[in-house]
Amino acid sequence: MSTTEPIFKQALQAQWDALAPVIRAHYSLSPFADQSLRLKGSMESVSHSTFARLLIPFTTLVGALVPYRGRNVPVEVVNQTRRDKAGLHWQRTFFFPGRKPFVFRSVMHHTGPYEITEYVRFGFGIRHKLAEKNGGLIYHDHGYVWKIGKRSIPLPIHLMIGRSYTEEMPVSDTEFSMQMEIMHPVFGRTFQYNGTFSIIR
Length: 201
What we know:
The protein is mainly beta. The chain is 13% helix and 53% strand.
């Protein structure tokens, strides 16, 4: 899509105006423009289950999720848009003590009403259905895909890893809390992290 409105505004439509100022600011970058936004925060907890440890070689290969466990982990996030592209680029850097910084990169695209698809390496992606809640933003897992050229092929990855839920909730005009978890119907919570972030710009 060629519009220069923020892609989350395009997806959320009228719900965009109900978001708290800090949440709107987090997603305010315009596609087809050279813009960036910096955030700093700390993950109170980053963890995965014993079962999920078996999946980490695959998730690491495609550049998804965080392969380590820790508490009070400093994190820096850089969001960017580019003049020649429609997506919102994310770079999240986790600083685990005694380890090389772990960098998690992805790009998000508006792919339908209330829908964003987040892609990592090799065209693997997850579709998120978005909703406003009490000024915050909720992501509901709407299925995994593999993009080959212009085709997006649905993948039943949720049968292995579970389904994700993410929320960001305002704390102040410059700070928000966030949590993400992936729940499997048999194996329970497979991955999770939660923390608080501030917009640095």
